[in-house]
Fold these 2 entries.
Entry 1:
Amino acid sequence: MTVNHPWSGAPCKISPRGASMIMRKVRDQPRTTRQDLVNDLKRAGTTVSKKTIRNTLRRHGLKSCSARKVPLLKPAHVQARLKFANDHLDDPEEEWEKVMWSDETKIELFGLNSTRRVWRKKKDEYNPKNTIPTVKHGGGNIILWGCFSAKGTGRLHRIEGRMDGAMYREILANNLLPSVRALKMGRGWVFQHDNDPKHTARETKEWLRKKHLKVLEWPSQSPDLNPIENLWRELKVRIAQRQPRNLKDLEKVCMEECVPPAPPPTTALTCVLRCFPCEPSWAGSPFLHRPPTPPHPMVRMTRSKTFQAYLPSCHRTYSCIHCRAHLANHDELISKSFQGSQGRAYLFNSVVNVGCGPAEERVLLTGLHAVADIYCENCKTTLGWKYEHAFESSQKYKEGKFIIELAHMIKDNGWD
Ligand SMILES: [Zn+2]
């Protein structure tokens, strides 16, 4: 694709030939430095500065960016991940609710503290509350084994010393099985752990087989697929807030934070997981949005998405273009011929995952109405408005209906 930019400023110091030469080079070798390109052009008889190189590449739509860090995936890993995704693409929610996820994690004593700012008065600068202890190697760390499922968090265990296969099996016996019982996983639950050699050792496999545990086949090098990563992240954030001063304190804080406040007993840290069910009674979770009103009967409430509701995937639906939260079913569309502030807008009979601001009177093209801005509950983008009241009888049909601007919607699901 070529990008045409309006002519601006000084003429290009690089000829089109020179420009295509450096474009070719960075396409083949994205890691080429600007100095390399200056040298290349010099050899070809053109002397330019690094700034000119940068400007030329920018004009062609390329910017110097940091290379993203990704797990080192061999072709076999890629294949295994793809197979895993394909195998489970259509798994119903209930299948995932049967999985007991597990993992080990290292928790640094001062892991997240280094980035924290404090509100304090000048004289309180050395109050321990306001300081960050600087210790070599982050003050030490502890290693934890933990597990959780859709039903809540299981036991958390501190691993002391080097874990070998025998220790791992002991952890499973003393923590996994009691957690499964406590969470009432029922028959048919599935155990997930990664392919660490301790997990896949022959004796461990044998142990799992003897205990009749079903193990989820897991692609290697895929920690990003394990939802427990979200739980570890949340735990680390909470630890930073609690500011443990030593490793013993750290362990205590971890255990406390992973035990849900009573009641209800099944509510747990898992509630903040973006992908897993939540008890509606959990308050204060930053990721959950409670429905302000009972959902439309069309809508199946789900406990498995960040979104309050999601529409059946067989239906033609409209989603928020910014976050993909479902917004409306195509069947609820009344009219496509409305005008919003950003162009065309649609009128819907009902919508989901949408919050409503205060109503106010506005003069619209079709007369005076009381309207309220509506926004995506999930990403908070203003989407359009709701007609609360129409003052003219010809406009009464709009009352209680919703306008969403086309610019904020994307079509999802069964459109083809
Ligand atoms: Zn959104």
Note: The mean pLDDT is 79.
Entry 2:
Amino acid sequence: MCCTSLELIYVHSIVESVGEGVTELAPGDHVLPVFTGECKECPHCKSAESNMCDLLRINTDRGVMIGDGKSRFSIDGKPIYHFVGTSTFSEYTVMHVGCVAKINPEAPLDKVCVLSCGISTGLGASINVAKPPKGSTVAIFGLGAVGLAAAEGARIAGASRIIGIDLNASRFEEARKFGCTEFVNPKDHSKPVQEVLAEMTNGGVDRSVECTGNVNAMIQAFECVHDGWGVAVLVGVPHKDAEFKTHPMNFLNERTLKGTFFGNFKPRTDLPNVVEMYMRKELEVEKFITHSVPFSEINKAFDLMAKGEGIRCIIRMEN
Ligand SMILES: NC(=O)c1ccc[n+]([C@@H]2O[C@H](COP(=O)([O-])OP(=O)(O)OC[C@H]3O[C@@H](n4cnc5c(N)ncnc54)[C@H](O)[C@@H]3O)[C@@H](O)[C@H]2O)c1
């Protein structure tokens, strides 16, 4: 049976209690809450190729538990709605068991918590989807947390040239720590960035990963890959009215365009393995964490994000 009514409560990413019928988790388990889920029963979950769970894929509008359509939070008798299935800006929350990944209890929760979203997304976009061959050249569009994680993934996969593209040159120095070897700021060039990259790479890059959310960058990321074998992967979430336009000959000339959600990782099945990559020191998550604030100062974290400062800010739950 699908686990629609199964719930659990966790605090500090530690399970506090489980609902009736939950067998995979027990109080005390260390977990990562994820904004998208894995029911393990639908055609997507059963497919080795998809992580787009029919039941629990991201839904920003639902705001209630799937089982009974009700919220578990309230204030003065009025409901407070859930946020993307996790509602983690609180000491305790209630989540569907399918959105919770059980991880190694030895893993430091104040570090590996960043693997719940953008870092795994960028990493997976490179290692699971773009799959750059060893010695290849990879272009990363957008050097925010997701793009830096994509660069890290390209480095882990063995790419030898990783070209970071961003309109904000202040990102470049930091990006060297994540494997970027060269940089292009489209503002520094009068010609389209696709042409700049083609000149730098003898015809085009082998792989590109777009992590901006800007549709023009998405088109550039596709058109800058080498004909014959180039693969572009879109990660950024575009404006709802955006349209992607390119000449169909770009496809006929054997360029491939892909998109990915959460780096094609299945949250419950794959995320524990990403944590193990960290435990084996194959993936360094500390360098993504530039700030940390107590829960009482959570708005400082939003200010940092709005100003584009730092990479990721940890919100510490303190009593
Ligand atoms: N597909 C998924 O599952 C998934 C998951 C998480 C985040 N995302 C999306 O990934 C994108 C990146 O997230 P982030 O947290 O790293 O964002 P961010 O805002 O921290 O970084 C984006 C970077 O892109 C740069 N940029 C913007 N427009 C550009 C352009 N035209 N050319 C070159 N660089 C440009 C910005 O200067 C910035 O440095 C967002 O759109 C986010 O919504 C997707």
Note: Residues 120-253 form a domain with the Rossmann fold fold (CATH 3.40.50.720).
